[in-house]
Design goal:
- With 162 residues, the chain is mostly helical.
- It has one domain.
- 81% of the residues lie in helices and 0% in strands.
- It has five helices and no strands.
- The longest helix is centred in the last third of the chain and has 38 residues.
- The radius of gyration is 18 Å and the shape is elongated.
């Protein structure tokens, strides 16, 4: 993965995290800036890692679909494919349009399906299915972890008050 792609993925991750954490921080004015910055950095790196795993997960699913190993060496992000992902992450702010955010992610997935189809030998629709399942699976997993962290931190906050 090139340094430009890593920078774009980290920027997309930080932007996605900001879209989730800043509204929370606005509702809780007592949160210190260092806590918010720490949360954003940690969440941004997690989001960037999830974005980086999307092609790898789609490639793994393509290997499972095919009876023989795919002829390609794998699927990786390129600057041209990851750039719309950064735009989607910037639009992750809840008030700027969740539907547009979702449509951009669908567009990024469609752009990722083409290279996956070429690299693996699958048809475009099968590759699109692998990309969709991989993206949805990663999204559901991250959302479950988010909810678990919120539940644990809310329980700890209630215990410290009592």
């Amino acid at each position: 993965m090139s340094p430009a792609v890593v920078v774009l993925l980290v920027f997309a991750g930080l932007s996605e995290a900001a879209g989730r954490i800043l509204p929370l921080a606005a509702r809780r004015p007592g949160m210190s800036r260092t806590v918010v910055a720490g949360l954003m950095l940690a969440a941004g790196l997690v989001e960037a890692a999830v974005f980086a795993l999307w092609p790898l997960t789609a490639w793994t699913l393509a290997e499972l679909v095919l009876s023989a190993p795919p002829p390609g060496s794998g699927l990786v992000w390129t600057p041209g494919v990851v750039a719309p992902l950064v735009l989607a992450a910037v639009l992750a702010f809840p008030l700027l349009g969740p539907l547009l955010h979702l449509l951009l992610f669908v567009g990024v997935g469609a752009n990722l399906a083409g290279p996956l189809a070429e690299a693996s030998g699958l048809g475009w629709w099968s590759a699109a299915g692998c990309v969709t399942v991989a993206g949805a699976g990663l999204g559901v997993t991250v959302e479950a972890v988010r909810r678990l962290v919120v539940r644990i931190s809310a329980t700890e906050a209630r215990e410290s008050i009592a």
